């Protein structure tokens, strides 16, 4: 399982910040993490079933997907409804969300959160295509094993105690 240094109360705090951002900007926004947390409407939904019940891409219509990292390690995705939202507002949203996440997390965890530029349609398509390659390989009985690399930048990540993740 993917591990991050945050606890349930930290996710609740972030959910409040995301809800405040959505309220101020009038941009519907959710945050999905790779450890199966969905921050939406000032609530935290945990586990794949809860996430799936509470995320509705059809309601978002046109969306901007911002990859989010902790110390150079992919953490999740901020998803903003971008219908009738200018490119400038989307860009400012990225900066604002990155700043607020760092203000909330850096003092307690001594980590840096980065919010990348929103993925464009072609990038998202290529990610889906790459996923197709991975699925085809594992469907043929091949096991894909990844080797995490510990760096000074992902100091909260303990490689020695983890088993080898497979895809």
Automatic annotation (TrEMBL):
<feature type="compositionally biased region" description="Basic and acidic residues">
    <location>
        <begin position="150"/>
        <end position="160"/>
    </location>
</feature>
<feature type="region of interest" description="Disordered">
    <location>
        <begin position="144"/>
        <end position="167"/>
    </location>
</feature>
<protein>
    <submittedName>
        <fullName>Uncharacterized protein</fullName>
    </submittedName>
</protein>
């Amino acid at each position: 399982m993917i591990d991050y240094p945050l606890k349930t109360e930290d996710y609740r705090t972030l959910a409040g910040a995301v809800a405040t951002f959505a309220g101020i900007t009038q941009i519907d926004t959710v945050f999905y993490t790779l450890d199966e947390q969905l921050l939406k409407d000032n609530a935290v939904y945990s586990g794949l079933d809860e996430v799936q019940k509470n995320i509705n891409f059809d309601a978002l219509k046109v969306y901007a997907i911002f990859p989010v990292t902790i110390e150079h390690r992919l953490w999740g995705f901020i998803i903003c409804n971008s219908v009738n939202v200018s490119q400038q507002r989307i860009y400012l949203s990225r900066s604002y969300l990155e700043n607020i996440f760092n203000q909330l997390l850096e003092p307690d965890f001594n980590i840096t959160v980065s919010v990348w530029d929103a993925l464009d349609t072609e990038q998202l398509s290529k990610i889906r295509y790459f996923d197709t390659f991975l699925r085809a390989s594992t469907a043929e009985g091949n096991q894909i094993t990844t080797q995490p690399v510990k760096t000074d930048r992902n100091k909260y990540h303990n490689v020695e105690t983890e088993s080898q993740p497979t895809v």
